[in-house]
Write a structure and sequence with these properties.
The complex is a heterodimer of chains A (767) and B (272).
Chain A (H helix, E strand, L loop, with lengths): L1 H11 L1 H16 L20 H12 L6 E8 L6 H15 L16 E6 L2 E6 L8 H12 L15 E7 L6 H11 L7 E6 L1 H35 L2 H24 L11 H8 L4 H14 L2 H28 L7 H22 L1 H8 L2 H31 L1 H20 L16 H12 L4 E8 L9 H14 L5 E5 L1 H12 L13 H14 L2 H5 L8 E8 L4 H17 L7 E5 L1 H35 L2 H25 L5 H31 L3 H10 L1 H17 L7 H31 L1 H9 L1
Antiparallel strand pairs in A: 1-4, 1-5, 2-3, 6-8, 6-9, 7-8
Helix pairs in contact in A: 1-11, 2-8, 2-13, 6-7, 7-8, 7-26, 8-9, 8-12, 8-13, 9-12, 9-26, 10-11, 10-14, 10-26, 11-12, 11-22, 11-24, 14-25, 14-27, 15-23, 15-27, 18-19, 21-22, 22-23, 22-24, 23-24, 23-27, 24-25, 24-27, 25-27, 26-27
Chain B lengths: L1 H15 L4 H24 L4 E11 L5 E12 L6 E9 L7 E6 L6 E6 L4 E7 L13 H5 L6 E11 L2 E10 L9 E7 L5 E7 L5 E13 L2 E11 L4 E12 L10 H5 L8
Antiparallel strand pairs in B: 1-2, 1-13, 2-3, 3-4, 4-5, 5-6, 7-8, 8-9, 9-10, 10-11, 11-12, 12-13
Helix pairs in contact in B: 1-2
Classes of the chains: A alpha+beta (767), B alpha+beta (272).
């Protein structure tokens, strides 16, 4: 057999194999200094995706800055006091001088003009110029600002307790670094003022920085926890070294390869080390069998050869299914997920390679006296655990029916839970509830229009069409309709500017707070607006030929669902009052982006998942050379996944990106145990055709390896339960649960199923 | 003019003999002020009155354009002092007849009026903000009508050649920073005509964001006049081209033209 020849070669040249592995590993490790990070959620979709291209076009056409940080200043006694106003003024100035900030476009009460009407005159002056000191002056300022609908809930909250500064940053600038600089500018003695920093670039770049910190912290901890667990299992340093070496090598190869190919590390791929470390525990099966064999044959070389012959095929298929499960992610459209799937898939193949080369080579180099110690320790411990597991095996074989009934009940519960799954993505929720980012976002959304932004672009067929009163009224109606949703905090468009001009030209008369009746009037107001406001503000909502208008929505939640509701409301409204012929409306902006992406996550993942299931089933059938055995080995996996996602649905956790990705991952991993169990059980049955005895043996011997593997795996992931970022936390806890559950399903549920279908199965096997 | 040259020579001498930086700085400031005074006079106060037919073309980053055609009348009381502007828009069609009247008071807020033909409304505008866009272009109101000399500190940075012109380089820094969107401006001023050839605008962080360039100077009735210029907004990738189709000086524009009532009924003698 080929495998045997490979093992023979490795055993003849252990040092050569180790040396060659080291050299290769160094080559991959040399790529690490080139590392780059990308946490922009927009990059979830490829640069060529129509949504992304349209979004870029809208941002370009309407001179919108893609990255804006919002600084909120909250004072529970109201912001209209000299100290708070002075803080706003000084902070604005200091922020404008901060590197990375687009100074001129910083929008604050001190940098935008308020156009109002006073004593029959049109008054154009900075919203906040010289700081008023007396109470009447302060009251007058408050009234002037709250009178301007363009300011309310944007620059000042309705209850006047909050003010906001909008800080666009340069495309290459790091949001977290700028947020940190802004924090250092905040006044030490702030009086009653509290400051909050929010916005997509801050969340994104803070996440990027945190991501590294957390992974740098948790990868070694996971490694250590696994080392300790391995020590308790085998009491042998070489085994620990071999296991860790396999893990480290696969991490270095796959991450080095990723970086070397010039790909940035995304949130998904940053999790690869922990995954690979966990997958590397598969080599435990080799150690487990090696120790058993060594006791039997008392010859190191022979023990290794026999181990590789018996465990080899199971290791091969379990690693291949894992690799395929991950590679199935590559069938989706979400780039970072595809890359992640390929990285872990490649790492798994590296682990497989190591299992056949490095592991036997290291085992070969273990000094004889250590081995004898290990075997002795193992013999003592083994007696108890073996008898304990044998009893468990007997129980499984005898109590077939109760086990199957319990399984069925659990499946029914899981199905109910599956029906309740809610697909949603919310980037801010990637931070914990009490974190600075999430608190800021919450506070700002309580007080102001909203931290998330969407655009509705209304495109007419000919120049000047936006300037027609009928279409403007239509846009206004749509805005009022959308504002009925409590999570749509503010909407503004060219309509709001035109109405404002109309009113101030008519001495502030509220009767003129409306769209004028003639196109000529609209044209002259627009002309005036171009001269009065910063040109960019008007450019944000209407293009030069007045052919396209942009309605800007501020949303109070990053949930993808909000944008879905906006789309529904828009469609219902426009169905009743259709736009003029050939006029289209199209959404864009980060909120819409999240919605699309959310949708893609669902379908992309579901698609990859189904493909993964098919691949794995095919592999299982090939491996067992039987449709029935293949399907049987498949069941524990299906059971585990249904149960885990049933629980996710039942406890009301959002099915977000990390959870979605897990579904595909768990595939390749959860099936490993069934592969080991079935392959070893059938080997045993062929040697000794006694079904009951073979089942009990399988629960006790490969079952032990399975439980050891599951515990190691679960421990490695469980440490992520202490992470500060919720995706890691979710992945850690769910993955640990999946491992424990699938080991239990394979070792306890499978024997019951085999018992149930014994006639057919055994007939097939005997044949 | 002569005194200026001598002053400058003196400045260079002082610098070369290394008589200390501080005195040189003071001298640079006074030299800079002298150059800037000349420039303001040549650029914004040429002769006593002027009538210009102006075209503006505003181009944004998508290449979309906005065109404007306007007549501008100007009458000075004294060089560097009070002056009046009357601006009448012919195009685009829907704003035809919109007009502005400005009575400039250096050192104080200007008087401004606006006329909207669509609702036949004359409105007085009270504003302290002179940095707003002029008719939606990249030129600000101040770029068109002139920024008060005393608002900035002007220092002479040096002399160089720009194309075929030998120029003074002046740095102007606002005396009350934070009230305007720029941190400093840098002027390249033609020694021969005193007209600015290039102006760079730097923001509060010192980043260049806007550049003015003179593209054509014509000698009109013996007065060097800028007839073509462009203002480029680097950050927003847009620019405005300003072309003066015709200029006539000292044609006898009278003060009674610059009255609120002439907004409704522009004088046919001056506005066709």
């Amino acid at each position: 057999m080929k495998i045997e020849r490979l093992t023979q070669f490795v055993l003849n040249h252990p040092k050569l194999v180790i040396g060659a592995t080291l050299v290769l590993t160094l080559l991959f490790a040399a790529q690490f200094p080139k590392i780059t990070v990308d946490t922009d959620p927009k990059h979830m979709l490829p640069a060529t995706s129509p949504v992304r291209q349209y979004n870029d076009q809208v941002e370009r056409d309407f001179a919108l800055h893609p990255d804006v940080i919002v600084l909120g200043i909250v004072n529970s006694d109201g912001i209209f006091n000299p100290q708070t106003l002075k803080n706003i003024k000084e902070l604005t100035r200091a922020i404008q001088e901060t590197p990375g900030v687009i100074s001129r476009d910083v929008d604050s009460l001190t940098t935008v003009d308020n156009v109002s009407s006073m004593n029959g005159e049109l008054v154009v002056k900075p919203a906040l110029g010289d700081i008023p000191q007396s109470d009447p002056e302060l009251a007058a300022l408050k009234k002037a600002l709250l009178d301007n609908p363009l300011f309310v809930n944007r620059f000042v909250s309705e209850d006047s307790k909050t003010a906001a500064i909008f800080i666009p940053i340069e495309p290459k600038a790091n949001g977290k670094e700028i947020a940190d600089k802004i924090r250092s500018l905040l006044p030490k003695d702030s009086g009653g003022d509290r400051f909050y920093i929010a916005g997509d670039p801050v969340a994104r770049d803070t996440f990027g920085a945190e991501m590294f910190r957390q992974m740098a912290l948790f990868s070694p901890i996971a490694g250590m926890v696994m080392c300790i667990a391995l020590w308790f299992m085998f009491r042998n340093v070489t085994v620990i070294i071999a296991n860790m070496a396999v893990a480290m090598i696969s991490i270095l190869w796959s991450m080095g390869g990723l970086i070397g190919l010039g790909h940035p590390v995304h949130i998904m791929s940053s999790m690869s080390p922990v995954f690979l470390m966990a997958i590397a525990t598969d080599v435990v099966h080799i150690f487990n069998e090696f120790v058993f064999r060594l006791q039997e044959v008392k010859d190191k070389r022979k023990a290794i050869l026999e181990t590789m012959e018996t465990v080899g095929p199971a290791v091969f298929y379990s690693d291949i299914t894992t690799a395929v499960g991950f590679a199935a992610l590559a069938t989706g459209a979400i780039v970072p997920v595809t890359i992640f799937g390929l990285v872990v898939g490649f790492g798994t193949v590296a682990i497989l390679l190591m299992s056949y080369t490095l592991v036997p080579a290291i085992l070969m180099l273990i000094p004889e006296k250590h081995i004898l110690k290990m075997v002795k320790a193992h013999e003592e411990k083994n007696q108890e655990s073996f008898s304990w597991l044998s009893r468990l095996g007997r129980f499984c074989v005898e109590k077939t029916k109760p086990i199957l009934v319990i399984g069925l009940v659990l499946m029914a519960v899981a199905t109910a839970g599956l029906a309740r799954i809610r697909v949603n993505n919310n980037m801010v929720n990637w931070f914990k509830w009490g974190s600075v980012i999430r608190t800021s976002d919450r506070v700002m959304n309580e007080h102001l229009g909203g931290t998330s932004t969407a655009y509705l672009v209304i495109q007419g067929q000919e120049d000047g069409v936006i300037g027609t009163p009928a279409l403007l009224r239509q846009i206004e109606g749509l805005q009022r309709e959308l504002e009925k949703d409590p999570l749509v905090g503010k909407t503004f468009s060219v309509v709001d500017y035109i109405k404002r001009v109309n009113r101030v030209l008519h001495d502030g008369d509220p009767a003129f707070d409306r769209i004028p009746d003639t196109e000529r009037e609209v044209g002259q107001y627009l002309f005036l607006l171009q001269s009065a406001a910063k040109p960019r503000h008007l450019d944000n909502v209407i293009d030069y030929p007045s052919r396209t208008a942009n309605v800007i929505l501020q949303l109070k939640s990053w949930d993808a669902g909000v944008m879905e509701k906006v789309a529904v409301r828009t469609n219902v409204f426009l169905a009743a009052r259709p736009l003029p012929e050939a006029t289209t409306i199209k959404p864009a902006g980060i909120a819409y982006f999240n919605k699309v992406w959310n949708h893609e996550v669902l379908w992309g993942m579901l698609n990859s998942f189904l493909w993964g299931l098919v691949f794995v089933l095919i592999l299982l059938v090939i491996e067992t050379r039987s449709l029935l055995w293949g399907a049987l080995s498949f069941l524990p996996l299906l059971f585990t996944i249904a149960f885990i996602y049933g629980v996710v649905g039942l406890i009301g956790k959002d099915f977000d990106m990390p959870v979605a990705v897990l579904s595909t991952l768990s595939l390749g991993m959860a099936v490993d145990f069934a592969i080991h169990f079935v392959s070893r059980f059938r080997q045993r049955l062929r040697e000794k055709p006694d079904l009951k005895e073979a089942l009990i043996w399988a629960v006790a011997r490969p079952g032990k390896g399975i439980f050891l593997n599951a515990i190691l795996f679960a421990l490695g992931f469980a440490v992520m339960g202490f992470a500060d970022l919720t995706p890691y936390l979710t992945v850690g806890i769910l993955m640990a649960a999946i491992m424990i559950l699938s080991s239990v399903a394979s070792v306890i549920y499978l024997p019951a199923l085999i018992q149930l279908a014994r006639r057919k199965l055994v007939k097939e096997d005997v044949r | 003019m002569k005194t200026l040259r001598i002053g400058l020579a003196l400045v260079s001498l002082l610098c070369m003999s290394g008589m200390g930086l501080e005195s040189a700085t003071a001298a640079e400031t006074s030299a800079g002020s002298a150059v800037m005074k000349e420039t303001i006079a040549a650029y914004y106060y040429a002769r006593t009155d002027a009538k210009s037919e102006i075209r503006m073309r505003i181009v944004n980053r998508q290449g979309q354009t906005r065109e404007r055609r306007l007549t501008l009348l100007r009458l000075d009381k004294a060089d560097g002092g009070e002056q009046s502007y009357y601006i009448y828009f012919h195009e685009p069609a829907d704003v035809q007849g919109m007009s502005f009247l400005v009575l400039k008071h250096p050192g104080g807020d200007d008087d401004r009026w606006l006329y909207l033909p669509a609702i036949d409304l004359v409105k007085r505008i009270a504003t302290s903000d002179k940095r707003t866009s002029f008719a939606g272009s990249d030129f600000t109101y101040e770029d068109v009508s002139g920024r008060d000399f005393d608002e900035d500190e002007h220092t002479l940075e040096g002399e160089e050649t720009l194309g075929e012109h030998s120029v003074f380089v002046i740095k102007s820094t606002p005396k009350r920073p934070g009230e305007v969107e720029f941190g400093t401006r840098k002027f390249w001023i033609d020694k021969a005509t005193h007209l600015p050839l290039k102006v760079e605008h730097y923001d509060l962080k010192g980043t260049l964001y806007k550049v003015y360039e003179t593209q054509e100077i014509q000698n009109i009735e013996g007065t060097p006049t800028i007839t073509k210029a462009v203002m480029k907004d680097l950050g927003n990738e847009r620019f405005t081209e300003l072309t003066i189709k015709s200029v006539s000086y000292d044609g006898g524009i009278t003060a009674d033209l610059f009255q609120e009532r002439s907004l409704r009924r522009p004088s046919p003698q001056w506005i066709q």
